[in-house]
Each structure stands twice: as structure tokens, then as C-alpha cells.
């Protein structure tokens, strides 16, 4: 008997509009359509050309400014910078504020997720553990590929891992708070969150932090799960706060 066609297909995460606009502008810079010293079209012009709101254009230009690709001059516009003067460590006040907000969310998540993990250690079912192991394996695979090949997959796998742990706790309030934090990251801070992950959330030591949580859940050790999760989010917040461009 032929295999039945699935009723629904997997939905890939759509790219955000500011990312799409930023990608188009970067392509214009890299191909020489926009040269060093050129002024970008106005927000109103870009909004009309791309068919998006001016707020979308504004955020896209901010992304380019964070990377040092353009320089904004108040009352004049945004200009393409000279490649020789670009630096990956430049940071705008807006980006600084976004990263501070991520630190605050990680600090909030520390207590919430630590208690959810402790509860999940005792409440989780075998099916829960299979899901948690599967998601952690996906996180490991993405981490091995590195940030250039699998940045979004790596970040989304981590968010999914701790959401699933919160679900395994059996306490819907932990799930609600976890989803609120994740929604704030995805809708308002995703670009900054991805940049931070690329800079300091890959590698064996980071995977070890997650692995300690998963192993404590497998052992049904509530206190170990609590401490491992607290350590994970405490260290993530500290790494971000101590990055050179946040000092």
C-alpha cells in the first residue's frame, strides 16, 4: 500500500521583513550598486519600493548600522561606509538597549526555568524525555555546523528545548511565562539575539551547560536540574553583559 500523503506539510519559519529589506540593501552594497559614500534612498522612497511600512525600513537600516555598513547623519540620511573603516564591534545606542533587554530576559528566565526544570525532573513522562532528547540532539547537530551554516536552527532548537522542558513540568503557568519571554525575543529582539548567539553561544562548553540540564532530567534529579538550569542562564546573561561592545 502506498504511503499516505500527509495532511499538512512542515512550515518553515518565514524571514522577518526587516531582514528581507536589509538583505536586499546589503546585496546592493556588495554588488557596487551602492558605493562607499553613497546616500541610501530615503525611508519613504525605500518604503514605496519594497512595499513595506517605514518602520520596517527603519529597522532594516538599523541592522546595517549595527554591522557598520552604513552611517546615519541626523537630518541628512544614511550613507554607505568605507569598507576599510568598518568594524564588527561598532554598536549603536539602539542595539545597546536591545542587548540590555536580552540580559534582563535571561535574568528573568533563570528563576522561572530553573524551577520548571526541577518540577519537570519529577513530573516528566517517558514521552517527554524522548522529545527532550530529540530536541537536544537537533541542538547538538546545529552547533556542530557552526553559526554560518545553522545559526537560526541552533537558536530555535534551544528555545524549543526549554519550552518543552517547561511543558514537561505539568504547570501551565511556567509554560505561559516561557512563551511570553520567547515571544518577546522572536518578535522584538530576534536580530540582536541571533548576533549574540553567533558571538558567544556556540561550542562544547555551551553544549555542556545544556547537557547537564538534560542529564539531570533523565536522572529525575530535581535539585541537579534546578542548579544546572540556573547555571546555564546565569552564564548566558553574564557572557552577554561582559562582551566587549557592551562595556
From TrEMBL:
Coiled coil: none annotated. The keyword Transcription regulation applies. GO terms for molecular function: DNA binding; DNA-binding transcription factor activity. CDD domains: WHTH_GntR. InterPro entries: GntR_C, TF_FadR/GntR_C, Tscrpt_reg_HTH_GntR, WH-like_DNA-bd_sf, WH_DNA-bd_sf. It comes from the Bacteria. Residues 15-83 form the HTH gntR-type domain. Keywords: DNA-binding, Pyruvate, Transcription, Transcription regulation. This is GntR family transcriptional regulator, transcriptional repressor for pyruvate dehydrogenase complex. It comes from Salipiger marinus.
